[in-house]
Ferrochelatase
Amino acid sequence: MTDHALLLVNLGSPASTAVADVRRYLNQFLMDPYVIDLPWPLRRLIVAMILIKRPAASAEAYHSIWWEDGSPLVVLSRRLQARVAEQWSEGPVELAMRYGEPSIDTALQRLAKAGVRRVTLAPLYPQFADSTVTTVVEEARRVLHSRNLPFEVDVLPPFYDQPEYLAALAASAQPYLQQGFDHLLLSYHGLPERHLHKSDPTGSHCLKGADCCQRASGDVLASCYRAQCLRTSSGFAERAGLSDAQWSVSFQSRLGRAKWIEPYTEASLEALAKRGVKKLLVMCPAFVADCIETLEEIGDRGREQFRAAGGEELVLVPCLNDHPQWVAALVSLCRRLPRGL
Ligand SMILES: C=CC1=C(C)c2cc3[nH]c(cc4nc(cc5[nH]c(cc1n2)c(C)c5CCC(=O)O)C(CCC(=O)O)=C4C)c(C)c3C=C
Ligand SMILES: [Fe+2]
Ligand SMILES: [Fe+2]
């Protein structure tokens, strides 16, 4: 069978580090109602305000991490696509970005031209969030409908607790853990608390007690990003042979004034340094490819914050990128887990 395609989808990056390109990208990203989940007029107003200063600041940050062949996130996702294509014998492997290029629309049209019959859509996010997974699925649904594409489509669900994924994460971190360290911080992309309340199907879970995410199960666990981050963390720590005292979890990349899920990475970096941690490892398991949020926010600014608070060395553990065990895990997950769209 060679007519079963795989469509890998990551978040996307600006086309270049020019302020105009960063503004265009941020506008598309932040106007997504799954990202800023407010009624259109209010969202338009807030995004217009963000777009006054942020494009220039973000362009500078992108410039500091940009590679000769483009955005790290896009370059690394392309490498992953190439490695996965070597193992996916069922059909073509395409890559799309939710924002910017190549779009989901372009990729699905390419697959239609290639004559595929079935598409497995793989959002490259281990943990569920409306702002990542749902928006990818809904955009694919919109394109399929508006272009009347004839595919059978299934979707890789979040794989935050899947053994292949956790084993790949542990294998990729192993060389760094072996170097010795005082503490490991698992820093995940943050989310506004409001998003967690919205996705909670019971209306009774989420942030109402200190350990609510730790105790989550069933439908609640399936929709709670924070709970899934905690599961990834404990699953990873168990496989890596870490004791509870050796690691902790935090959430980075806050934007705006709303309350985001805690603890915040900035506060954790400072608290760990003040507690006497000298050598800190940081992993970012919400991202499967290194990007501005890992390289610049943690690798540059986070390192400075940690040192300013008295820490000595912050080592950023690379994301899974195109690690061979991750490539094999992703192929295996895409064969084993997908459910109908
Ligand atoms: C309301 C704002 C945002 C939400 C919600 C959000 C969720 C979210 N994002 C990722 C993954 C990535 N985000 C990236 C960059 C980025 N994220 C936001 C805002 C929200 N993200 C902004 C404004 C930016 C742009 C950079 C900046 O100006 O600071 C990236 C990196 C993209 C790159 O080009 O490198 C990723 C990846 C997840 C996983 C997530 C929810 C869990
Ligand atoms: Fe983000
Ligand atoms: Fe929760």
In short: Residues 163-316 form a domain with the Rossmann fold fold (CATH 3.40.50.1400). The radius of gyration is 20 Å. The first strand starts at residue 4 and ends at 10. The CA atoms of residues 4 and 118 lie 5 Å apart.
